[in-house]
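Render this sequence as a predicted structure.
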Amino acid sequence: MPANNHRKEYLSRRKLLALSGATGAAALAGCFGGDDDDASDIIPGQELDTVEVDYNENYEDEWDEAVPAGDVNPYNDQYLFNPYTPAWDSGDGGQEFTNEYLSVYNTETGEFVERIADGWDIDDDLTTTIDISDEYGWSNGDDITAHDFETEMRLAAYMEMGMQDFVDPDEGIYAEDDYTLVIEPRDEYTDLEEELWMNNWAETILQVNDEQYGTYIEQFEEAEDEDEMQSIREDVLNFEPSWDEALFSGPFVFVEANEQYADQVPNPEHPIAQDWEFYLRYGVYTDEEGAQAGEVDWVHNDPTIEDLPDIYDEPPVSFSGQSFAIIFGIEDEYIREYPEVRQAIAYAIDMENLVEVAAPGTPVDEYSTGIDYGYVENFVHEDVLDAMPNYAPQDTDMAAELLEDVGFENDGDEWLTPDGDTWTLNFPVGDWFETHSEVMSNNLAEFGIDMDYYVEEFPTWESETDANLDYDLTVHLNYGMARDYHPYADLDEEFNNPDRGLFTERTGIVDEEVEVPEVGNPDGDMVTFNIEEELEAIATAADEDELMEHSSNLAWVHNQLLPGVTVFPWSEHYFVNAEDWDFDLETDDWLTSNRIAHYLVENGLQPE
């Protein structure tokens, strides 16, 4: 099941931090930093003018006002409009509304819905020719062309955050003419599994343009060594267009930002949005308080809000291809060396209750395969899934048995290590996940583990704690590869991520070659798998049977060795004001990674 590739994190988080400075910590998670410097002061030669947008200046008097709960106000450069800079916002208002996709993948129908793409052809050697629609324009009135998508895709690859593994950015991505884009795989990947190949480009989001970013492509082409490449990457990270200097390809464009609020109006150059007669106002009423007061028209990703007025209803919940997971560190020798200890921690946590408290209505991951629960059944044999231990229901008896098997001892109300010491676990978390982690810490403490549990502001946790692996366990999203909807993307990210990869030199919890019971039989003879060879086999599988076989192998390895615990698929949940607006709560148009933006493109929005 394919999907997009717009925020791949192949560039090490540590490398990004080194390039962008301490504030860069927030970039990878779509958080915000803040910088008062104008973009033209940062990059010599990049003189940006205010973009002229031909919009209805009487929109406040003539159009209806919709109020999202998110507070995406780019006033004073709190948010900036370069997807690689620390102050980029990857939420609805900053990313999804202002940038358009080549196509979006509907997880209900299993099909791509074309946006700027006007069809494509894939040859036997995977050479792909994409027709670009001539109906879309940038917010300044310029046409969107294949050259813009060439710049988007090549820049992502040069930044090591795109499809550089499978495509040579120097030669493999090019505009054949203004409305024809060609993508060619590297010679060694002409037999890549086709769905995985499509994952790398079909849901590209157009966040950069050739006019403002083309100069970086020229510099990368001329770079003579890796030092020069790194210097150019630093320039890209520090390029900081303000809201009124950026070009927008999506259905909305910012036209006002002040201390009180920010406004987005329909992009007059977008062939669908140009007919809308409503605008979005951010910052006056926000988040939970705004919803409880009945003043916002939709709230995203907070299913636990209480005391909501009756005006709100819930459309279908989509899953974004990323998992909420327990992440194990390497400082504790028992966690690092013994799968039984990792399994014991999982069994000691009541994950079913955790999900009920923190994400009601979301399914609990029964398998912990390392592949997102939302689509794992499409890639792993049913009998293999059925044979897997289910770590989700709390089972403290099993947890105790596993610890005792490796030499732990229960001394009344606490667990002692095989060396006779009190077993203390360092459990720091970012404040995004305070509710989730509190349930976990309480469970583990009740089980008898001494917990050093504390909550940090998310940017601090990410830049200091997570970046330095300063934890015995923690929690996070993006265990796997968000929004790629394919086992290779998930498993490759988990095993090879340069920050937290499970068998990298820095963070290895498992070896590249591992022994586990035979697939589908927990009591069977031990068999050996080479993880890299299995990953390569998934990537180049000739047919569905071969893909299922190797995906099942690595899913089984993950379940048995449990280098991380996937708890539940992250949901994209909305409360919407269905009393004042004509929302269709039944349509599957909600079920894409583009979320409410795709719903609006397909349905528009009218007052009741």
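Summary. The longest helix spans residues 544-561. Residues 181 and 314 are 39 Å apart (CA to CA).
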